[in-house]
Amino acid sequence: MNKTKGIWRVITASSVGTLIEWYDFYIFGSLATVIADQFFPKTNPTAALLSTLATFAAGFIVRPFGALVFGRLGDLIGRKYTFLLTLVLMGGSTFAIGLVPGYETIGFAAPVIVLLLRLLQGLALGGEYGGAATYVAEHAPAHRRGYFTSWIQTTATLGLFVSLGVILLTRHMLDSDQAQSIAKFNSWGWRIPFLVSILLVVVSVYMRLKMKESPLFTQLKQEGKTAANPLKESFGHKTNLKLVLLALFGATMGQGVVWYTGQFYAQSFIENVCKVEFDQSRTLLIWSILFATPFFVVFGSWSDKIGRKWIMLMGMLLAVCTYKPLFRQLLTITDLSSRKEVAAMGEKKSTLLPIGNTGNYLRTVVNKAHYDDGSVLSTTTKDTLYSDPAKTTRKPEIKTAKLMDSSSYWKMVFVVFIMILYVTMVYGPIAAFLVELFPTRIRYTSMSLPYHIGNGVFGGLTPFIATLLATVYTSDKLAGLMYPIIVAAISLVVGALYLTSKKKNVDL
Fold it and tell me: Taking the CB of residue 323, how many other CB atoms lie within 10 A of it?
């Protein structure tokens, strides 16, 4: 059989569907601050953000269960129909989140419904990645398996890229006036990226329906050698269970925290700690992703020549050693204290919005401080202007946002690019590494579980745990990095000691 025949059609159909699933999964995280306002009480913004990040993390926590459920189906009935099912579940859940009424309309039912849909998303994604990676690997020639599977690896980052792009495009299309555009997006426009995803899902379902089953699985089925009980064979046998644990603690656990620190926590840190305004915090991530994405394929292809192990471990080592200096650099770049304010350019705008028939008004005051390098610091203060002059708001809501000058902006792009370069090192070769670790008859189940525990649980919890640590240890703005550094260091040591560095070019 010529395994290269039609490989690009296989990669395209698999990658497009997987990209859309990641897009669906990540628009929730990309809109965390907006969703916090919609589905949780507004009395405590920090608690609302943490609750949103916890809901975001919940989708990751259930991914291993999805890996078990759909991995078993994939090894029993085939790769094609299993990840077709996961795509439909993911698309339906994402569309439904766009329809859920906010907290002010249905109270605590709103976050509960969103949590349930988020859990369904997590289950679906738990079955998607293993299927796509296995499907491509079982079509690819052995000596180029790292190269071909690395195209699947680009889909997670590209899914984030597309989610950020759709969010920004939606926001700017709502109104030509920036203030009105922001207000409309925060009120109802945020739903659009969730709703339009159903169109992408329909296209992807059509493409996947035209795909054929994996040739290796088809051969196994014809010979009657498919696994009767994939779960028992994967985790009930000591030899295979040892491989599962090694894959988890020596590779996917470290890969997961590097992935989510370099992209999601970086974005959260830039927006919530560095206080860079919404658009810039996302466009700089878009540029960083755009520049770094080709390196998934570079390192995937390189792993075919020198092996998977040391490329992945080097990415973890660099992350452990340089995360603190890199994030400290982001703080330095966005520090406006040493810059000269141009007082004559200062702006102040006040608006009043009546609150029903109470005679009271919601007052919003925006002060803009301009600096000689082009940076702008906006301070928005919201309080209630009471009809009774004796009453005042005890604790006004105050938010700051920085619009960085061009030089600072591109310096930040470079810093985040370095972090995502680490992501490409740990993530580019890992699909080929996991696929080659397990036999065909139980591959879908065996590789999916360690991947989704490492990437989904250890990695997916990174934004929440890091933000929580930064909230607890307020005196240290880099406290959140303790979690990914420790986890990546453990994985680095285990991988260095126990992973094989032998290049695997044998047939599956």
Answer: 24
Backbone angles phi, psi at 214, to 5 degrees: -55, 135
SS3 content of the chain, % helix, strand, coil (to 5): 70, 5, 20
CB 411 within 8 A of CB 444: no
In angstroms, the Cα distances linking 296 to 261, 274, 284, 427 are 17, 28, 19, 7
CA distances from 204 to 76, 91, 97 (A): 23, 10, 20
Please report where in the chains the tokens 């059989």 appear, as a residue.
Answer: 1
In angstroms, rounded to a whole number, what is the distance separating the alpha carbons of residues 139 and 255?
A: 25
Structure tokens at 9: 């059609």
Extract the tokens encoding 324.
Answer: 């603190």
Q: Measured in whole angstroms, how far is the alpha carbon of residue 19 from the centre of its chain?
A: 12
Which structure tokens are listed for 113? 């419904």
Residue type, 439: P
Terminal Cα distance for the chain, rounded: 14
Cβ neighbours for 151, distance < 8 A, ≥ 6 positions apart: 11, 15, 136, 296, 297, 300
In tens digits, the chain (508 residues) has pLDDT values of 444 557 787 788 777 777 876 787 678 777 877 888 888 877 677 777 777 777 777 877 888 888 788 777 767 776 667 777 888 888 888 899 899 998 888 888 888 898 888 888 888 877 777 677 777 877 788 888 899 989 888 887 888 888 888 888 888 888 767 767 777 888 888 899 989 888 888 888 887 777 776 666 666 666 665 555 666 766 777 888 898 899 999 999 999 999 999 988 998 899 989 999 988 998 999 999 999 999 999 999 999 999 999 999 999 999 999 999 999 999 999 999 989 999 999 999 998 888 878 888 888 899 999 999 999 999 999 888 888 888 877 788 888 999 999 999 999 999 999 999 999 999 999 989 988 888 777 777 778 788 888 987 898 888 889 988 988 888 899 999 999 999 999 999 999 999 886 554 445 5
